[in-house]
Automatic annotation (TrEMBL):
Domain CBM6: 338-466
Organism: Chryseobacterium indologenes (Flavobacterium indologenes)
Domain of life: Bacteria
One term of GO molecular function: carbohydrate binding
Keywords: Carbohydrate metabolism, Glycosidase, Hydrolase, Polysaccharide degradation, Signal, Xylan degradation
Gene3D superfamilies per the UniProt record, alphabetical: Galactose-binding domain-like, Glycosyl hydrolase domain, family 43
Protein name: Carbohydrate-binding protein
Length: 468
């Protein structure tokens, strides 16, 4: 057995646990590095990168969007923008962040230019899930260096917007109200032990500096700026030995001076050299989004979004936050009596998601023994039937509905015939075989009937139950 297969089996075991449901990473169908959360009209949107599997570098060509209303079930909205969306971009679709202003959504991205430097651009949309288009047709920030990565954007209470970014150095500009231009010059934030726990010196690595000069930390990349109780917080990827950590500084002003406050997440078995996060409040609770390499076949170049809930200390400082596989508790329930996209998931195995102009985003490549878990589904007083929109080019697939566990009570089953093609979706219905009411986790389990193990069974677009 080679090390890759051993790692896959070990991590699968760790994530599955024994009697403890896994929730982190929150997306299993794709690698989703560099999460950037945004709250809009009662939903949490997560904007991520897209690590391509099978490469030994940060091979990224597009960005992705997910949303949740309850912090446990995440809907895949596909990839509204990619390198192709920007005529000036050629490679390295790295970290990004989206923000809303006056009903418009501005997605700040970084990418490698045709001149072989990194630059920051901005795409705009009327919807948080797109379609987005390049707002300028050129970079917003392009200074001919590789420092122009990891943009973070913040709008203060007085309406002034700020764009921060930087790798090894930290820069900012004041954005104009149109969010696609800036005023004044680019300002570099001075780095010091007092501001960021350490500082860089030419010709010395962060690891050497920490050992020789005993720096507690150092600013590396991935800034995240926000405000709480008239205090400004700058979270960033710091450095512990040879691994990035999440650290933060605070300031009475959005432009500093910054005061180093310590590490938020460090010495965690994230299985990834980098970490990149965002902190946000939602429905009265505070959350830290970050990434790990803990999905099977993941690692430093296959990173996935995870989330933890936390409470600020009484003095406004951020406590040390421990990575968990359990993640967070539901912040609400899901209504099963309305159309729910099949790509709304709390956990999944042996399936993926795809997107097309005809269908949009849908669950694809469902295989025997796989499943989709949806948490905290409120059946209220009871359901009578279950309907699913499915497609299959070959028959033999079965969609089972179980409660509370993959092997829990089976309440419905649909045998899926050939529908005329893998994107010819048909609505099929099954009666509920057992009484169901109240709040349950629901498992949509994929089974095959007299077929070769491992073959693709069907695609799955959406589902809903009907009340009694």
């Amino acid at each position: 057995m080679n090390q890759r297969n051993l790692r896959y089996i070990t991590l699968s075991f760790l994530l599955a646990g024994i009697g403890i449901p896994a929730q982190n990473p929150v997306i299993q169908t794709h690698f989703t590095p560099d999460p950037a959360p945004m709250v809009y009209k009662g939903k949490m949107y997560i904007y991520t990168g897209d690590d391509q599997p099978g490469f030994d570098f940060y091979t990224m060509t597009r960005w992705r969007v997910y949303s949740t209303e309850d912090m446990v079930n995440y809907t895949d909205h596909g990839s509204p923008i990619s390198l192709e969306s920007f005529s000036w971009a050629r490679d390295r679709a790295w970290a990004a962040q989206c923000i809303e202003r006056n009903g418009k959504f501005y997605w700040y991205i970084c990418a490698q230019t045709v001149d072989n430097n990194m630059a920051i651009g901005v795409a705009v949309s009327d919807s948080p899930t797109g379609p987005f288009k390049d707002a300028l047709g050129k970079p917003l920030i392009s200074t001919g260096t590789w420092d122009n990565i990891d943009p973070t954007v913040f709008i203060d209470d007085d309406g002034q917007a700020y764009l921060y970014w930087g790798n090894s150095k930290l820069f900012y500009v004041k954005l104009n109200k149109n969010m696609t231009s800036y005023q004044g010059k680019i300002t570099e934030i001075p780095q010091s032990v007092e501001a960021f726990g350490g500082l860089r010196r030419p010709g010395k690595s962060d690891e050497v500096l920490q050992k020789q000069e005993k720096f507690d930390d150092v600013y590396v990349e991935g800034p995240w700026l926000y405000k709480r109780n008239n205090q400004y917080y700058m979270m960033y990827a710091g450095m512990t030995g040879r691994t990035e950590c999440l650290s933060y500084s605070t300031s009475p002003s959005p432009t500093g001076p910054w005061k180093y406050q310590g590490k938020i997440m460090t010495d965690q078995p994230i299985n990834s050299f980098t970490n990149h996060g965002g902190i946000i409040d939602f429905k009265g609770k505070s959350y830290l989004f970050y990434h790990t390499g803990l999905l099977p076949a993941g690692g430093s170049y296959g990173r996935s979004t995870a989330v933890e809930e936390f409470r600020y200390n009484a003095d406004g400082t951020i406590p040390k936050i421990t990575m968990t596989k359990e993640g967070v508790s539901p912040a609400g329930t899901l209504n099963p009596y309305q159309r729910t996209e099949a790509e709304t998931m709390a956990w999944s195995e042996k399936c993926s998601t795809s997107e097309s102009r005809k269908t949009g985003v849908y669950v694809s490549d469902a295989r025997a023994g796989g499943y989709i878990k949806v948490r905290s589904v409120d059946f209220e007083k009871g359901a009578s039937t279950f309907s699913a929109s499915v497609a299959a080019g070959i028959d033999g697939g079965i969609l089972e509905v179980h409660l509370d566990d993959v092997k829990g009570p089976k309440i419905a089953e649909i045998e899926i015939p050939r529908t005329g093609g893998w994107e010819e979706f048909k609505i099929l219905t099954s009666k509920i075989s057992e009484s169901v009411s109240g709040v349950h986790d629901v498992y949509f389990v994929f089974q095959g009937k007299n077929i070769t193990a491992g073959r693709k069974l069907f695609n799955f677009d959406y589902w809903n139950f009907q009340k009694k």
